[in-house]
Amino acid sequence: MSTSKLYGYAGKILWVNLTTKSCKVIDTPIDLVKNFVGARGFGAKILWDNVKPGIDPLTPENLLIFSIGPLAGIGAHSASRFFVIFKSPLTYTYFRSVSGGNFGAEMKFAGYDAIVVEGRAEKPTYLWIYDDIVEFRDASHVWSSITTHASEILLKETDRDAKLVVIGPAGERLVKFASIQTGETRSAGRGGGGAVMGSKNLKAIVVRGSKKPELFDEEEFEKLVEQQLDLYHKNPSFHAFRSLGTDGSVYLFYTLGHFPTYNFKQVELENVDMFRPEILARYVVKTDSCYNCAMECWHYFKTSKGPFTGIIWDKPEYETMWSFGGNLGASNLEAIMYANMLCDLYGLDTISAGSVIAFVYELYEKGILTKSELDGVEPRWGDLEPALELIRKIALREGVGNILAEGVKRAAEVIGRGSERFSIHVKGLELPAYDPRSGKAHGLNLATANIGASHMYGWVYYEFPGSPGNVDPFAVEGKGAICRKVQDEFATYEALGFCLFPRSMIPLDLASKMLYAATGIEEFKNIQYLLLVGERIINLERAFNVREGFSRKDDTLPERFLREPVPRPPSKGQIFELDKLLDDYYTAREWDIKTGIPTRKKLEELGLKDVADELEKLGMLPR
Amino acid sequence: MRIFIEFVWTVAEKIGRRYIWIDLDEKDVKVQDIFQKTLPRIVGKEVGEILYNMYLNEEVIVVINGVVAKDPTKKLNDGDRILIQPLASGG
Questions:
Q1: Which chain B residues touch A277 with a CB distance below 8 Å?
Q2: Among the listed residues A2, A206, A240, A5, the one whose alpha carbon sits nearest the alpha carbon of residue A106
Q3: Distance from CA of residue A335 to its chain's centroid?
Q4: What is the 8-class DSSP label of residue A28?
Q5: Among A277, A318, A319, whose Cβ lies nearest the Cβ of B9?
Q6: What's the pLDDT tens digit per position in A211-251?
Q7: SS3 sequence, A91-124?
Q8: A240 with B67: Cβ contact below 8 A
Q9: A236 and B91 in contact by Cβ < 8 A?
Q10: Residues of B in contact with A232 (CB under 8 A)
Q11: pLDDT digits over A137-191, tens only?
């Protein structure tokens, strides 16, 4: 049965212009729904259609798109995340950043599949959205305040039950890796969405809704949600994840050659035992979850000794345990927890912040930066006190923090003196806690991801933990196809709005049935159709970057991974074989091998003829 | 043959220790033998069986020298370092 009514979806997109203080509401187009499903797909298409190539990401011309999937707020578990899509001031590429919490579901209740923000407010502003009512409110009184304090005041003056996204001092100061925070401790962290928001003088968006979308087949949908829960409970990962979230993997991944150490020098980490899960689990005092998610993977840690005593805050995730732990040669858990909290309060991405700081530690070790150049800070591996001071300096752009706030790529360009060798990024996005030399398909994903070095763009589970399927992480052969498969699959799940953590517990077959029961759209019954949506999204994101001048030359990794063999087991002696792996990847993608650009044939196959035409008009389509 | 086994998280709690060095006289020792023969001698048959079933059901992960070992018939070598922990995932 086909349908013209949009079941499951909110059915509207809110378009806000901060410059003119005006807004419009449009019906969510059926073509957009069928070709891109939602969430990341919506964002990619809206950004491609509306952002001109070459713009400065911090000008009013950039868009900030908040989007959700069709399963948000209607009872599906782990499906109410919100996606933020924009041109990144850190990478100058297309970007998608993601967060959990409750904001995504509330957008749905307010009646919107997406909120698109353009322009720039004349003075600090926040948006108060209550169903169809949109108000542009003065935010001068909360400007300069940390995220939690601003949230408290804005909820008090709107509605205690509202949900919001907010930036901190870092976003206001256009720190290029400023995050967008929600619900105290959750972040759309990567890529500098907070800076884009700050550039628009937008402190927060507060949303409250009272609507409930109609489902195509509510009874069937409820049965499928039961199936989803049943699969969760039968899956061993579910129980591990509920116990300690991503922190259950810190010690394991170190053993597998990841959780890289000392700015990816990868020498053995002293006191790595501190990251064993049974030790981390001792800090848990409370758990919580995103909207309607049985995974319940938030774990509040309490510090109870030493100079950081007295904090109860959501735990540093695997990535943050690394960025302020292993990557700085540190194992002081309570200091890592404190660093994590500071980043949330200032509104900073913990991965990029820790990576920039690790870069400083290595430059200091090498004598490239001196104490006086660092405003008196003496960063030494293993000591987190200097890192805490640098977090503050970055967030407030104070002294050397003003350079570091630009991200590691531009900071290295400013500092010079050979520092570029130690700046660990791809396309400007600092690497996460995975060593490309310890998992070649993982590395390939980091090199080719359209947003720079993001692990969540295509986390290649085949290499580890090897479930389902298991491949040799050090092998090179066949990794292009594996990387492509996982990237497409992740894009599909993100178009549906799912969290990627429980992805292995939600077979695509079940996701497809849920989608059909919610929306009644025939095409969504077909898994291959949905996977094609994922591939379409990846290709459109790539086309956006091509239009910005990106090509194969940008799909690379820092020299450290290409020239320096890993010194510690199990990856001892490994380097990353870039050219061979890239050839394999482009071949698997059916892109032009020489340029890494999608061909007309591929784009037309994916229903993106207009995209091919535009690239050709710009002289950017391979012949 | 001497091997090192490291137990992590709830496996360590179940076994009651974190590390163990084991001298084995047998030749051709496989991963499954650790659960079916070696661990039962130390922690009792029941715990060995529980852990082996968890391994087969992918609730427990076995890592040998930093590489995930999913095949229970994989042979062990002198000096191997084995890690056994509940399955966990990253992000």
A1: 8-9, 85-86, 88
A2: A206
A3: 24
A4: P
A5: A277
A6: 999 999 999 999 999 999 999 998 878 888 899 999 999 99
A7: CCCEEEEEECCCHHHHHHHHCCCEEEEECCCCCC
A8: no
A9: no
A10: none
A11: 999 999 999 999 999 999 999 999 999 999 999 999 999 999 999 998 999 999 9
- Of all residues in chain A, the one with the smallest CA distance to B58 is A236
Q: Taking CA B75 as the corner, what is the angle to CA B69 and CA B77, rounded to the nearest 5 degrees?
A: 105
The CA R_g of chain A, rounded to the nearest whole Å, is 23
A432 to chain B, any CB pair closer than 8 A? The answer is: no
A64 DSSP β-pair partners: A117
Q: Which pLDDT score, from 0 to 100, does residue A29 have? A: 98
CA-nearest of A452, A451, A456, A434 to A443 is: A434
pLDDT-based confidence at residue A5 (cuts at 50, 70, 90): confident
Nearest-Å Rg of the Cα atoms of chain B is 12
What stretch of H or E contains A354?
helix A350-366
Tokens of A414: 């400013």
Taking contacts as CB-CB distances below 8 angstroms, the residues of chain A near B68 are: 256, 464-466, 470
Tokens of A362: 């290595």
Backbone angles phi, psi at A565, to 5 degrees: -65, 145
Other C-beta atoms lying within 10 Å of the C-beta of residue A307? 10
Rounded to a whole number of angstroms, the distance from the CA of A570 to the nearest CA of chain B is: 5
The token duo for A178 is: 């400023």
CA–CA min distance A446, chain B (Å): 14
ipTM of the complex: 0.94
How many Å lie between the alpha carbon of A123 and the closest alpha carbon of chain B?
37
Torsion angles phi and psi, residue A107, rounded to 5: -55, -45
